[in-house]
Design goal:
Blueprint lengths: L1 E5 L3 H8 L6 E3 L2 H5 L6 H12 L4 E5 L5 H13 L9 E6 L2 H12 L4 E6 L2 H9 L4 E4 L1 H6 L4 H15 L4 E4 L5 H10 L3 E4 L1 H4 L6 H17 L4
Parallel strand pairs: 1-2, 1-8, 2-3, 3-4, 4-5, 5-6, 6-7, 7-8
Helix pairs in contact: 1-3, 4-5, 6-8, 8-9
């Protein structure tokens, strides 16, 4: 399973990338709005520079209609500032206008991430339209009393039934349990906020074990 960082904060992205476990970055308009850069394109440029060519970077359009989605997607992919990067993934919402945009860019051989997925039916349509990634939102489903992890399981089963190639990118991760649960469910990718990534190694028995090792070593008076 690949791990993506859900962030548009350049400092945070650089720090997390140093861990050597980050396979990509996902952004959205809300995350972008928190950055200090003066434009979307300059932020994308900084992110791509920070993570390198081997890491996909999802960038969501703001438009809601097909023509403007197409125009914004083309601007992101073909802009002079960004033309050196081949790892940019255009991201569209799970609407019929977004599906049209997905098909348009998929036909051009571009990677597309279909976001705000909350049902198996939506995931089927996204795969039929040629989406490279489908992003089911785990936490938001949990918020309304449904199981986001169950949705990942169901999408995985359907994609397996019909040999769809679209990758399941589990999003809206709220807890450590979400990470392990979507991994067990077979998600291809999980995109995680920095604050949760930093806790992935936390375990009381690890801390207790280190303390025992430390005390035993000090009592032994051995030298390295």
């Amino acid at each position: 399973m690949q791990i993506f960082l859900d962030s548009a904060d350049i400092k945070e992205i650089k720090e997390m990338n140093k861990l050597g476990i980050i396979d990509g970055v996902t952004t959205n308009p809300s995350l972008m709005s928190k950055t200090q850069n003066y434009s979307l394109l300059s932020t994308i440029y900084d992110i791509c520079k920070a993570v390198g060519e081997s890491s996909d970077v999802s960038v969501q359009v703001i438009a809601e209609d097909f023509e403007n989605m197409k125009n914004q997607g083309d601007e992101i992919l073909n802009n002079e500032l960004l033309k050196e990067f081949s790892n940019i993934v255009v991201k569209f919402p799970m609407t019929w206008e977004g599906i049209k945009a997905c098909r348009y860019f998929a036909n051009k051989g571009k990677k597309v991430n279909m976001t705000l997925c909350f049902s198996v039916n939506q995931a089927i349509i996204a795969a039929k339209a040629g989406a490279y990634y489908i992003s089911p939102f785990i936490g938001r489903l949990d918020d309304i009393g449904q199981s986001g992890v169950t949705l990942v399981n169901e999408i995985k089963q359907v994609y397996s039934n019909y040999s769809f190639k679209t990758k399941i990118l589990a999003a809206s991760i709220r807890s450590l349990e979400h990470v392990s649960q979507v991994a067990l469910a077979g998600a291809d990718v999980v995109t995680i906020p920095s604050k949760i990534i930093q806790k992935l190694l936390d375990h009381q028995l690890t801390s207790d074990g280190l303390e025992i090792f430390k005390k035993d070593w000090e009592h032994s008076q051995l030298k390295i």
